[in-house]
Amino acid sequence: MASAVLAQPFRIGVLEPVLEDLRARLRRARRQRVVKQGGWDAGTDPDYLDELIRYWRDDFDWRARERELNQIAQFSASIGAANVHFVHEAGLGAHSTPVLLLHGWPDSFLRYRKAIPRLTGTHDAAPEDHAFDVVVPSLPGFAFTGLIPPFDAVPSIKSSAQLMHRLMTEVLGYEKFVVAGGDGGSAIAQSLALQFPDSVIAVHLTDIGWHNNGDASTQTHAERKYSADAQQRFMEDGAYIAVHASQPRALAASLNDSPTGLASWIVDRFHSWADSPRHLERSFSKDEMLTNITIYWVTQTIESSIYGYLAETRQPSLGAGDYVDRPVGLALFPQDLVGFPPRSLAERSLNVVHWTEMPDGGHFGAWEYPEDFAADLRKFVAGVQDPSNPGAQHGYRADKAV
C-alpha cells in the first residue's frame, strides 16, 4: 500500500533560551514545608522533591539525553491539522509484524524506549524470536505532537484512534497491524479495534481499560470486590483524576509556569504506580524521570495532555455495550493500581485469548520490565498468527499454564 502522506525525519532540538529559562526558574524555586517530616502519604515527599530539583538544576544534562533520544529513528507527518511525532524502527528480517505502541499520562513515547530494540530484534534477540516494525507516536496533546488546531477541540479517545489509524495506513502504508497500549493507550487501542477491525490484527494491553462494565448486580463476587477495591484506591489516591476530569485548566496554569510544581505532580504518579514505591529509583532513574518531565516542560503540553480526562468524562468514548472482538492479549503487572482483575471482568468487553500475570512490575510495566513486556507481546502475536500455539487459547501466570 503506497503512502498518501509523507513523513519527514525529526530530531529533537530544544532552543537554548528555553533551557536557560528552565534553569533560572529552578534556581528561583520557592519551597515551603508545612510539616518537618517527609514521606509520600500527602503527596510528593518533600525531601525527595528537594533532591530531585537540585539534581535537575545542577546535574541533569538535557543535551546528553537529547543526543540519546535522537539515536532513535523519529519522524513527523502532517495528517490533517495534526503534526504527528512518532518513532518508527524497522524489525530485522523480511516478515516483521507492524505494531503500534500507545502510551498514556503522565508518561510519553519514552514508556517503550527500552522495549523497542527487544521488539525489532536488534537487542540480542534469537533468530527465531518474533520481530516487529515498531511505531511509537506522541499522542495528540502530548510531547512533540502537541496541540492540534483548532485548539478548542481537545482530542478524544475516538478521534485519537482515528488519527493513529491514518498514521499506520496512510503515512506508513500498513494495511494491517497489531496495536498495544496501557493507561490511555489501552483505551485508544480498544477504540482502534472497534472502529477499524479490518486493520487491527490483534490488541495487546497492560490493563483492561476504561470500560463501563454495566450493572453491578450482574457481576460476580470477585468482580464486585475488584471494583470496590478500585473505588477505594481512587478515594485514597485519585486526586489527580478528580482534578483532571473537572478543573484541568486551574491546575495546568500553575504546572505550566512552575517546573517544581510540574515535577512534583508527575513524580508523585511515578512513585504511586512504581513496582516498588519504597525504592523508586530501582524502577526509574532521576535521569529517566527528568527526561520525561523536561519533555512536558519544553513542549508546554501539560494542559493538553490532561484535558482529555475532562473530555472523556463528559462524553466517554468506550461504553458498556462496546466489545472488542479482535484477539486480545493481556500482560498484567501486580503493582498496577489494585492488582490483577478477574479475567471474567476483562471478558465482558474484550475477546481475551491470552492472559499473563507478571511476577513483578507496576503501571509502567513496559518501562520497568521491557524484556518481560516484549517477550509477552511476541508470545501473544505468535499465538494469534499460529492458532496451533496453546498461547492463543490458554492463560498464563508467570509463564506457567493456569
- Domains counted in the coordinates: how many? 1
Coarse shape: globular
Strand content: 15-25%
Order of SSEs: EHHHEEEHEHEHEHHHHHHHHEHEHHEE
Number of strands: 11
CATH level 1 name: Alpha Beta
Radius of gyration: 21 Å
Roughly how many Å apart are the termini? 41 Å
Secondary structural class: alpha/beta
At the fold tier of CATH, the topology name is Rossmann fold
Oligomer: single chain
Q: What is the typical, i.e. mean, pLDDT?
A: 90
The CATH superfamily is Alpha/Beta hydrolase fold, catalytic domain
Poorly predicted spans:
391-402
Work out the helix count.
17
Helical content class: 40-55%
Strand order of the largest sheet: 1-2-3-5-4-6-7-8-9-10-11
Give the structure's gist in a few sentences.
With 402 residues, this protein is an alpha/beta fold.
Record the SSE blueprint.
Layout: E1 7-9, H1 16-27, H2 46-58, H3 62-69, E2 74-79, E3 82-89, E4 97-102, H4 116-120, E5 132-137, H5 157-171, E6 177-181, H6 184-195, E7 200-205, H7 221-237, H8 239-244, H9 248-255, H10 259-272, H11 280-283, H12 286-299, H13 302-306, H14 308-314, E8 324-332, H15 343-346, E9 350-357, H16 365-368, H17 370-385, E10 395-397, E11 400-401
Parallel strand pairs: 4-5, 4-6, 6-7, 7-8, 8-9, 9-10
Antiparallel strand pairs: 1-2, 2-3, 3-5, 10-11
